[in-house]
Design a protein that fits this description.
7-stranded mixed sheet; Beta Polymerase, domain 2; about 50% helix; alpha+beta; 18 helices; two-stranded antiparallel ribbon
Length: about 400
């Protein structure tokens, strides 16, 4: 029995990144051997074992043979004569196909260290195309390691495009697609995930509402970058700088979906794209099975971002209606999420990245003022029944009116 540290732990150790999870491959052992030594078996499709003390995962070396469609159509062989090199061959990228032995010696049969040094994401073998999930995984790695200057090998991009055109991506489970997407959205450069998927022609099924934004023009005066797809990724980039919350980032990604169905005869105008975008956010979110909280915030941002942008010109009564629509009286936490997504939208334009967004602070002051309604005093004054709600609304309007607008 030989044990090797493999995969991400080796890669990140060589990159001098923190290593949080360690995966191990065991060569020359059977499931019985592992159980005899006190390991706990947890794998269903193939034998994976938890170390009796560290609880880290130890998998028997295996090979995979494609027998059906999708990412589950594989037959695994984990017999005791499978070599480490055979196990590493089935992995997706060369930088993930390295191992360290017990003496910390690097085993690198597919030149992963060379690609790591050159900052290249390259597939290990032509078997890459057997698993459609790898398109999303590679896009996630491209986003995760964007800060290190990694680029995609042209031949790997070609295989990703081949997979995209094959229709195999449609066989993926929504939960798997969302898992890769969520992990990317929460990373440092989430926009790169979607940029790579676009380059790989991989947005057209799972993210079709986003895919159609490229080629849709915006008014150059307000959007020097012009293209709505480009703008969307710029907004997502700004959202990642403003907030680490999934809800904010997802809302930034989906805020302009309504522009994708604007009648081309009225381009670059996008009248009512805010309202048109809401059902598109709903459709995308249902397809991806994304969390309800993220979906709800995204729908509100799609519908309300124009009103937030123009809040300095709104009447106090309209601002109170805006707060009602956000349901901030009961869910104050979503107020800040909406404002941050809107600020990301305002900054996600060429030349606007560092501009201030006074609308956010103004609305924060309005909200803080409007919360100071003394309901008990209203009731004590003799107001009863349905009239209480109207009296509270009028008092909120009065308090919002007292807030000084920024010049």
């Amino acid at each position: 029995m030989q044990i090797f540290l493999v995969g991400g732990a080796v890669r990140d150790q060589l990159l001098q990144r923190p290593v949080y999870d360690k995966d191990w491959v065991v060569v020359g052992a059977s499931p019985k051997d592992m159980l005899t030594q006190g390991f706990q078996q947890v794998g269903k499709d193939f034998p994976v074992f938890l170390h009796p003390e560290t609880k880290e995962e130890y998998a028997l070396a295996r090979t995979e043979r494609k027998t059906g469609s999708g990412y589950t159509g594989f037959v695994c062989d984990f017999s005791t004569d499978i070599t480490l090199e055979q196990d590493l061959l089935r992995r997706d990228l060369t930088i993930n196909a390295m191992a360290l032995d017990a003496n910390n010696k690097l085993i690198d049969p597919y030149n992963g260290k060379q690609d790591l040094d050159k900052r290249i994401l390259r597939h290990v073998s032509p078997a890459f195309v057997e698993d459609p999930l790898r398109v999303l995984r590679v896009a996630r790695f491209a986003a995760r390691y964007h800060q290190y200057g990694f680029t995609l090998a042209p031949e790997t991009l070609e295989l990703m495009q081949e997979l995209s055109h094959s229709g195999e991506l449609e066989s993926l489970a929504a939960e798997r697609v969302w898992k890769e997407t969520e992990r990317s959205l929460l990373g440092d450069d989430p926009q790169q995930y979607f940029a790579v998927l676009k380059e790989a022609h991989a947005l057209s099924y799972w993210f079709k509402e986003i895919d159609c934004l490229w080629g849709v023009p915006n008014p150059p005066k307000h959007h020097p970058e012009i293209d709505t797809g480009v703008h969307t990724l710029m907004v997502l980039e700004q959202a990642a700088k403003l907030s680490d919350e999934l809800e904010v980032r997802y809302a930034a990604l989906t805020h302009d979906l309504g522009k994708g169905i604007t009648d081309p005869t009225i381009w670059p105008s996008h009248t009512a794209h805010d309202v048109r975008g809401v059902p598109l956010v709903e459709a995308l979110s249902e397809r991806l099975k994304c969390p309800t909280k993220a979906k709800d915030i995204a729908k509100l941002v799609a519908e309300l971002h124009i009103r937030v942008h123009t809040s300095l010109t709104l009447k106090p009564s309209t601002i109170v209606k805006l707060f009602d629509k956000m349901d901030v009286w009961r869910r104050a936490e979503r107020f800040e999420q909406i404002l941050l997504a809107c600020e990301a939208d305002a900054r996600g334009r060429t030349g606007f990245e560092d501009r201030s967004y006074p609308q956010a602070n103004y609305l924060r002051e309005c909200f803080n003022a409007a919360q100071n309604v003394d309901v008990k005093a209203i009731v004590d004054s003799g107001v009863k029944g349905p009239d209480i709600k109207e009296a509270v609304r009028q008092k909120r309007i009065e308090l919002v009116a007292s807030v000084t607008k920024p010049q």
